[in-house]
Amino acid sequence: METIDNWYCNHRGRLLAIACQKGYSYEEAKDIVQQFFLDMLQKELGEINNPEAFLLTAFKNRLIDLYRSGKSAPAFETAPDVPSTQEIIENLESDAELIEKISRAYKKLPARYRRVIYMKYYRGLTTEQIVEETGFTYQTVYNNLSKGIQLLRRNLQDSSGNVANLKMAALLGILFSQIFLNKSD
């Protein structure tokens, strides 16, 4: 379970971007990715040497299966020009303004929220590992993560009230690494 939890943390954003690129709405993509990882938890996977390749192949196969079954066909008319995963990554890595905005929003969070968000998204710890390290209860860690992300989203809303959900979800880890790497310079 710990392996799949780490995979979820490390690859969730990329899988979301792939589903959105294939024409699914952000909410549909979140549901599909969530169900994909829940199904993975129930399988005995054995040893996997290249988890990224495994996850990408398995997820793309899942999208094909969903399309064929007709249960969750992408709504292409609602997402005509979705950027590719590579374009999203390149835009986020080079978008210093967004990194600065996230950095400011992160610094506005109460210390307990910053601590668990840092541990989850930057250090890649599971919720159980955060519980062990902090001494908080599982529910407290979960609540702090949830409320911290809600506050981050609220602080990152643009003037129209929209949040760049796909960008934030796709590369929160990269942004945090850049924030903390720049902090050490």
Write a structural description.
This protein is mainly alpha-helical and 185 residues long. It has 2 domains: 77 residues; 95 residues, Orthogonal Bundle (Arc Repressor Mutant, subunit A), CATH 1.10.10.10. The chain is globular, with a radius of gyration of 17 Å.
Quick rundown:
The protein is mainly alpha-helical and 185 residues long. Helix content is 74%, strand content 0%.
* Main beta sheet: none
| Overall tally of structural domains | 2
Shape: globular
**CATH class category name of the largest domain:** Mainly Alpha
Number of helices: 9
The structural class is: mainly alpha
Q: Give the SSE order as H and E letters.
A: HHHHHHHHH
Helix content: over 70%
Show unreliable segments. Answer: 76-80
* Strand runs, count: 0
Measured between the Cα atoms of the first and last residue, the distance is: 36 Å
Content of β-strand: under 5%
Mean pLDDT metric: 75
User: Considering the protein shown, what is the CATH homologous superfamily of the largest domain?
Assistant: Winged helix-like DNA-binding domain superfamily/Winged helix DNA-binding domain
Gross CATH architecture of the largest domain: Orthogonal Bundle
Remind me, CATH topology of the largest domain? Arc Repressor Mutant, subunit A
Provide the gyration radius in Å.
17 Å
List keywords for this structure.
185 residues; Arc Repressor Mutant, subunit A; globular; mainly alpha; single chain; 0% strand
SSE blueprint:
Layout: H1 2-21, H2 26-41, H3 51-69, H4 85-94, H5 96-108, H6 111-122, H7 127-134, H8 138-155, H9 165-184
